[in-house]
Amino acid sequence: MRIVVADDSVLFREGLIRLLTEAGHEVVAGVGDSDALDGAVAAHLPDLAVIDVRMPPSMTDDGARAARRLRQTYPDLPMILLSQHIEIRHTVPLVASGGFGYLLKDRVLRVDDFLDTLRRVAGGGSALDPEVVAAILAPTRHQGALAALTQREHDVLTLVAEGHSNAGIAARLSLAERTIETHMRSIFQKLDIAEHGDRHRRVLAVLTYITHRPPSAPV
């Protein structure tokens, strides 16, 4: 896989490049700011971009805003955002388009899981860090359209947001895959999500979960 890495920390960036290279991937560019990221993607047209949320020039959300620009210009470019802090302001439209992941940086240390996430996102899937999901979803319990979901349905939808397949969710919850399929049908029905193809409906379910948080929820 051909990858662009964007992170202003030279130590972290070089460590990540080494990890990816040793895993058999080709890092075509390693850059330290959002402008250089734009140029690297245009020059190399990579298979995946790994982007730090906070980069120069403002050191706030430049990486996240660059990711949204890149998605508009390169709609098929898979991207993974990395951050030391939970920031969800820019994630909703990116999750909706697929081929997107958002992980806290310490997840990179779980090398096998991180590399598996790269493969899933590069294949068009989505993956949200469990702590990011918890920050997004915890305040939404019993809010609006979500009030009808059972606790088990909340658990299932949380794992969907993390990017797991029905089989993966079944394994984590020690349930039969058919049971997970039943839960998903119930979730789609309760959230009034019509037939659009399973992957699209899963994304819509996650978006419903995210966008029904109250105004006081973290952003």
Feature tags:
single chain, 219 residues, alpha/beta, Rossmann fold, 6-stranded parallel sheet, 10 helices, 50% helix, 13% strand, globular
Please give a structural write-up.
The chain has 219 residues and is α/β, with parallel strands linked by helices. The protein has two domains: 2-128, Rossmann fold, CATH 3.40.50; 135-211, Winged helix-like DNA-binding domain superfamily/Winged helix DNA-binding domain (Arc Repressor Mutant, subunit A). The chain contains ten helices and six strands; from the N terminus they run βαβαβαβαβαβααααα. Strand 3, helix 3 (62-73) and strand 4 (79-83) form a beta-alpha-beta unit. The chain is globular, with a radius of gyration of 17 Å.
